[in-house]
Design brief:
Length: 359
């Protein structure tokens, strides 16, 4: 009887996973009924719930899970080395693992993951996404170059104020409030932005921020250079609003950060976007890309040296493997370019500029 109940449970989970897959296969249905429908309530509720806490609940859960997995791995290796595993026990363990993975898949998708299959920001803004030319890249890179230099000059002229992480989070919420006046679908309520407890680890495996789909929290690595943090925060908040793909989170983060009146936010977003665009331009016209990079203000070049030194300091043999695995994760979620998907924000910027004639 118990055996039948178990397989009925497994079968039900499998059917639910298939239903989720079939539902999310239609981007129009996903956009209308999940991303701008059900998910708005799910995301808002979890942000409200975890926003009541001053610490990162998701990071604590991740820590507990990591310790549990490590203990299970050690225990499993000991058993294997002693050759105490029968085929029956092995199959039982394998079935339990399969059930756990199915549950994680279902919960992940219901709480957030289905957003990977939505129509997204390009459709919401009516942007015409088409193949862009090297000239388009030069145009957009030139504009971003000017924006970077202007915002950096404004920071230099103003009194030196180093924003705390708490203040950056607060101003990021204000930035979304401003951009939502222009695009109502970017309204952000119930803030839940946290300092990552694992920022020190992130420096070695290569993350500046991440979104926890199980708790609704946006996590920011506040140990990275300060000029990265405003745009990173806006990017992770975009994930909270249901923009799962990295290029979309980059673009929505741009819309929010560029709506801010704060020079630090403007510098943060335009510097990051310039680097994306210049990297894309380099593939098409390396001479033009080098020429533009050379025109950055000395103070901007200094910041880039600081950033490069930061990355070199934390360089290690594990990071490329983590980057590869993350790339595979992105590829499995509608982002065939893997980690290069971040750079694809350039195409959205070009389409946006062609339609609105502004950045």
């Amino acid at each position: 009887m118990m055996y039948k109940k178990k397989w009925f449970f497994v079968g039900s989970l499998f059917v639910l996973a298939v239903v989720i897959r079939l539902f999310s296969a239609n981007d129009v249905v996903t956009e209308q009924y999940y991303s701008t429908g059900l998910y708005t309530y799910i995301g808002s509720f979890f942000r409200w719930l975890t926003g009541l806490l001053s610490f990162s609940l998701g990071d604590i859960l991740y820590g507990i899970i990591a310790i549990w997995l490590l203990s299970k791995l050690i225990k499993g290796l000991k058993v294997l080395l002693k050759k105490q595993v029968s085929s029956q026990v092995f199959l039982k363990k394998l079935s339990k693992t399969f059930i756990v993975l199915l549950i994680i898949y279902i919960v992940f998708n219901i709480l957030w993951g289905i957003n990977y299959n939505r129509q997204g920001i390009a459709v919401q803004l009516g942007l015409k996404m088409e193949k862009y030319s090297p000239q388009d890249l030069k145009t957009i890179s030139n504009i971003l170059l000017q924006k970077v230099n202007e915002s950096k000059a404004a920071i230099i002229k103003a009194p030196a104020v180093i924003l705390s992480s708490k203040e950056i989070f607060k101003r990021s919420v204000e930035a979304y409030s401003l951009v939502s006046k222009k695009y109502s679908f970017l309204q952000y309520n119930n803030p839940s932005v946290k300092t990552s407890l694992w920022g020190w680890l992130g420096n070695y495996i290569g993350f500046t921020g991440y979104y926890n789909p199980f708790t609704g929290e946006a996590q920011v690595n506040t140990t990275v250079p300060k000029f990265l943090q405003p745009y990173t925060t806006c990017h992770e908040m975009a994930h909270q609003l249901g923009y799962a793909k990295e290029k979309e989170a980059n673009f929505v983060g741009y819309l929010a950060a560029s709506a801010s009146k704060d020079s630090m936010f403007l510098y943060s977003v335009y510097l990051d976007l310039f680097l994306y665009a210049d990297r894309s331009l380099y593939s098409a016209d390396s001479a033009a890309a080098k020429s533009l990079a050379h025109q950055l203000l000395p103070s901007v070049k200094y910041d880039l040296e600081v950033l490069n030194d930061f990355y070199l300091k934390h360089q290690n043999p594990v990071e490329p493997a983590i980057r590869w695995m993350y790339g595979k994760y992105l590829q499995s979620n509608q982002q065939p370019s893997g980690v290069s998907s971040y750079d694809e924000v350039t195409g959205l910027l070009i389409a946006y500029y062609k339609k609105y004639n502004e950045l």
